Amino acid sequence: RRHPKLFLSLSVFCHVGMNAAVRAVVRMGIYVGAKVYFIHEGYQGMVDGGDNIKEASWESVSSMLQVGGTVIGSARCKDFRTHEGRLRAALNLVQRGITNLCVIGGDGSLTGANLFREEWSGLLDELVQSGQISEEAAQTHSALHIVGMVGSIDNDFCGTDMTIGTDSALHRIIEVVDAIMTTAQSHQRTFVLEVMGRHCGYLALVSALACGADWVLIPEMPPKDGWEEQMCHKLSESRLRGSRLNIIIVAEGATDRHGNPISSNTVKDLVVRCLGFDTRVTILGHVQRGGTPSAFDRILASRMGVEAVLALLEASPGTPACVVSLCGNQAVRLPLMECVQMTQEVQKAMDEKRFEEAVKLRGRSFENNLNTYKLLSHRKIDAELPRSSFNVAVLNVGAPAAGMNAAVRSAVRVGITEGHTLFAVNDGFEGFSKGQIKEIKWGDVGGWTGQGGSLLGTKRTLPAKHIDKIAEQMRIHNINALLVIGGFEAFESLLQLVDACSRYEEFCVPMCMLPATISNNVSGTDLSIGADTSLNAIVETCDRIKQSASGTKRRVFIIETMGGYCGYLATVGGLAAGADAAYIYEEPFDIRDLQSNVEHLTEKMKTSIQRGLVLRNENCSENYTTDFIYQLYSEEGKGVFDCRKNVLGHMQQCYYAYIFGHFALLVDFVQYHIFVCFVGRVFANTEDSACLLGMRRRALVFQPVIQLKDETDFVHRIPKEQWWLRLRPLMKILAKYKTSYDVSDSGQLEHIVRLRLSV
């Protein structure tokens, strides 16, 4: 069927990641047979018309994935706020036959788009009466359909877990914090960082959680009276424990309980006056809006862009304007004005000093992050701690992954807060068998969040090899629970320990695993700690490689990624980097497929896009090696393009970690099973006493490892079913391959969940 014309409008601010959304909308629109237009300079371009509204081509959105901001411009528009301006905009759209609008912006832009839609029929009547359009044109274009995507670094829009641009802004902030920490530590300084967030403290809160800041000030939860003394006491206590630096993060809209602004300079003056610390202020400003988009933002924007096109194609005259949102790991469609109204309710709650309610209205992600920060940063004095005689051991198992140290820090501090004694095990189960176990305190894990690798040490050794000695060490140290952080080896280890329960009572304790592996190959979870950081390393390398080819036309790069037999890194990295193909074990290929890809690249070289990028998972084929594919492409492409190859190797494991999560859930799980199974001593041997905490679609869930056994291919160390395989057709479509796209998993219009708030 003939699809309607699509119109793409970018409004208000430009944010990193928007170009990926623009690219996805344009290419998906062309794929389904629609004409796609975009407008330059946002609503101003819609009002002014003329050359501001142009038809988009496939090539017009090439080479923009790695570019920050927006290549089609963005501007505030006073004219669109007037009836006359919207009338001119309607005329410009009707003249081009456009009745579908995709708007990327914040709540102001989306509210304006919805008002435009509500006025549409009246605007057309006015244009008919004034003779500017015919009755037939008004009937043909009688309905205006709108789909929104939220672009905002503040993550201040209710209804979505993450907005386009937020993750990239967090990367900019953490990069600055990492750089500042070195000079702060050298000179024993306190740094006050001011980040964006006039009405929303998400950036300040999550960056404070990710870097382990000593104090954070956000507008949703102003500090209680007397905060000045509490903050200075905490900073002083930190120095007495041996810390050489302090980090304080302030959102630009931070206030006290009485509405008085708290600026970064106010905080600096307070620290200098009360403590005499050498204190400096850094205001990040618009640095947070720019730079290269993160892998997460590119993937999010690409998925949202495709979902937006599908939503427009399925829209009917009675369909309300919707916004494409992210819930957990799933794309959903929500009524636009429901989300806008809840977003406005947050500000109303803040204005009326109902701060607890404002936090809840922000959504589960914001509330969980705030609770986690409170748990991890504010140490209770010993007299306030609940009393417990339970010992919990934490260890890393398998290959190192970025985020392991942050996970250990979180588990240790939450466990101590709950009154347990935490023991750190060095070098995994091999170290466990040798007795490399020692008590770990609150201050021992200070500064661990930003460090890559595993400070505890990690080995791939499975416990079965040393099961007797491990049981003995469990008995010697009276270990009542195990927290295992690692990849596939950690999963296998828990299965072996569960199997050993019948022979060794020492293993009849609650055991919980947190998946941490760059390969993202563990059953029971859509995402693993470390995978996102590895994707960023891959995408950054691909960007540099593509840039190196900017002056050399007709060149194809073959890149080998890690992942074992799991093609997650190759597939999702390929989507984020704009690859032409990605070879993986899960999708078998032969020489005909390779030849087809060569022919596809040959045709591509005839266009203005004269370079190619191909990713190959390290174990995708025993015979079609990276060298083979490189030589094949070089031979078959002779005279058309030349080839280069690159094996990324262990650089994918070595980046800093940016992790924030729900480690309180781990300790809650352990506590629940400890108390349920405590009869004189801890004895837990039920199926659900050994679980994996993972993200499944929209929620974090505990799953017994025994149940996950049937979902796992142990020969190739991958889950039998993997959600990200559904992204492969999307990658192929955006690379201009003719392929089918399964819409069965696309979002359906839902309603925003309103929390029941106690008065």
Automatic annotation (TrEMBL):
Family of the protein in this entry: Belongs to the phosphofructokinase type A (PFKA) family. ATP-dependent PFK group I subfamily. Eukaryotic two domain clade 'E' sub-subfamily.
Provenance organism: Cyprinus carpio
Role played: Catalyzes the phosphorylation of D-fructose 6-phosphate to fructose 1,6-bisphosphate by ATP, the first committing step of glycolysis.
InterPro entries found in the cross-reference section: 6-Pfructokinase_euk, ATP_PFK, Phosphofructokinase_CS, Phosphofructokinase_dom, PKF_sf
PROSITE patterns, per the entry: PHOSPHOFRUCTOKINASE
Pathway: Carbohydrate degradation; glycolysis; D-glyceraldehyde 3-phosphate and glycerone phosphate from D-glucose: step 3/4
Protein name per its UniProtKB record: ATP-dependent 6-phosphofructokinase
GO MF annotation list: 6-phosphofructokinase activity; AMP binding; ATP binding; fructose-6-phosphate binding; identical protein binding; metal ion binding; monosaccharide binding
Subunit relationships: Homo- and heterotetramers.
One GO-annotated biological process of the protein: fructose 6-phosphate metabolic process
Modulation of this protein's activity: Allosterically activated by ADP, AMP, or fructose 2,6-bisphosphate, and allosterically inhibited by ATP or citrate.
Cofactor(s) it depends on: Mg(2+)
This protein's record includes keyword Magnesium: yes
Species lineage: Eukaryota, Metazoa, Chordata, Craniata, Vertebrata
One Gene Ontology cellular component annotation held by this UniProt entry: 6-phosphofructokinase complex
Source taxon at top rank: Eukaryota
Major subcellular site: cytoplasm
Signal peptide segment: 1-21
EC number(s) on file: 2.7.1.11
Chain positions recorded as substrate binding sites: 152-154, 189, 196-198, 252, 280, 286-289
N-terminal catalytic PFK domain 1 as annotated region, ranges: 1-378
Record flagged with keyword Cytoplasm: yes
Pfam families noted in UniProt: PFK
Residue numbers annotated as active site: 154
Binding site for Mg(2+): 107
Subcellular location as annotated: Cytoplasm
